[in-house]
């Protein structure tokens, strides 16, 4: 009987620990340098967050964001089935005073109805990157191009449309699913990819999980940041893959 009580106590403590880890407010700072980054632009400061799911953005996380932010990018799975759209408005409002917000769809976002979510985001001033591109131009005529594709689920992504809407310049691609890397080519000249989806495995036992832990990858065709994500799915627990958002500084190589 005593051994059973000890087992229950230990199990409860482990679950409590995993719940706390699943609700952390970590802000990971990433500095990435590129020879191709145009010197007519100042360094680009990005707040990137993906896989919010059911969470409410905490003031603890917002307080950690540095004052200098040029763009906010939400990398999909802002919601999932059962999440009220009022929570979307609440989360967007928490970010809207910081910088312009850009959004790509994740697989779970479609569960609340694509048009329903788009209506809320449009009303909130969020810019949707639905298989398209936005171009920023410097005083010298150089370009930074932000491309976004819809989620790869049900083949909703149209990378060719996003590339077709872009011009020559420094390209950042946002895709919820990191498998988009397999669809790009070196000729596309995409410098940086921002993605999430995997949750870093969410629960990792002895360092092993369903997916690799999120990190920055320096790959042959592009540099790719895969985030562990801010929220959780199925169960609100994490282990070995801390919840995170990102403050990204993009700069040229001196």
Chain oligomer state: single chain
Q: Low-confidence runs (pLDDT<50, min 5 residues)? A: none
User: Could you describe the largest sheet, including whether it forms a barrel?
Assistant: 6 strands, mixed
- The radius of gyration computed from the alpha-carbon positions, rounded to a whole number of angstroms, is 19 Å
Strand content: 25-35%
Helix vs. strand class: alpha/beta
How do the SSEs run, as a string of H and E? HEEHEHEHEEEHEEEEE
The number of helical runs is: 5
Instruction: Write down the overall mean pLDDT.
Output: 95
Strand order of the largest sheet: 1-12-2-3-4-5
State the helical fraction: 10-25%
Compute the number of strand runs. Answer: 12
Name the descriptors.
single chain, 254 residues, alpha/beta, 6-stranded mixed sheet, 5 helices, 12 strands, 22% helix, globular
Write structural notes for this entry:
The chain has 254 residues and is of the alpha/beta class. It has helices at 2-22, 59-64, 85-96, 114-123, 159-164, and strands at residues 26-34, 44-49, 71-74, 101-103, 127-128, 132-137, 143-149, 170-175, 190-195, 215-218, 223-226, 244-252. The strands form two sheets. Strands 1-12-2-3-4-5 form a six-stranded mixed β-sheet, covered by helices on one side. Strands 6-7-8-9-11-10 form a six-stranded mixed β-sheet. Strand 6 and strand 7 form a beta hairpin.
Short description:
The protein is an alpha/beta fold and 254 residues long. It contains five helices and twelve strands. It has helices at residues 2-22, 59-64, 85-96, 114-123, 159-164, and strands at residues 26-34, 44-49, 71-74, 101-103, 127-128, 132-137, 143-149, 170-175, 190-195, 215-218, 223-226, 244-252.
């Amino acid at each position: 009987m005593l051994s059973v009580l000890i087992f229950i106590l230990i199990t409860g403590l482990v679950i409590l620990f995993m719940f706390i880890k699943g609700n952390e407010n970590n802000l990971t700072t990433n500095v990435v340098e590129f020879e191709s980054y145009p010197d007519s632009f100042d360094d680009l400061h990005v707040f990137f967050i993906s896989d919010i799911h059911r969470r409410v953005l905490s003031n603890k996380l917002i307080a950690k964001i540095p004052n200098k932010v040029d763009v906010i990018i939400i990398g999909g799975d802002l919601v999932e089935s059962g999440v009220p759209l009022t929570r979307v408005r609440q989360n967007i409002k928490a970010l809207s005073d910081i910088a312009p917000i850009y959004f790509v769809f994740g697989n779970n976002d479609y569960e609340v109805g694509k048009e329903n979510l788009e209506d809320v985001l449009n009303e909130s001033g969020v810019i949707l990157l639905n298989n398209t591109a936005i171009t920023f131009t410097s005083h010298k005529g150089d370009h930074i191009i932000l491309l976004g594709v819809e989620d790869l689920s049900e083949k909703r992504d149209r990378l060719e449309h996003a590339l077709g809407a872009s011009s020559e310049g420094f390209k950042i691609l946002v895709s919820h699913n990191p498998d988009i890397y397999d669809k790009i080519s070196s000729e596309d000249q995409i410098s940086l990819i921002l993605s999430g989806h995997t949750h870093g495995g969410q629960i990792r036992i002895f360092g092993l999980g369903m997916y690799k832990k999120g990190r920055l990858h320096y790959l042959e065709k592009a540099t790719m940041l895969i985030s562990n994500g801010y929220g959780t799915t199925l169960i609100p627990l994490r282990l070995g893959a801390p919840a995170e958002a990102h403050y990204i500084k993009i700069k040229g190589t001196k």
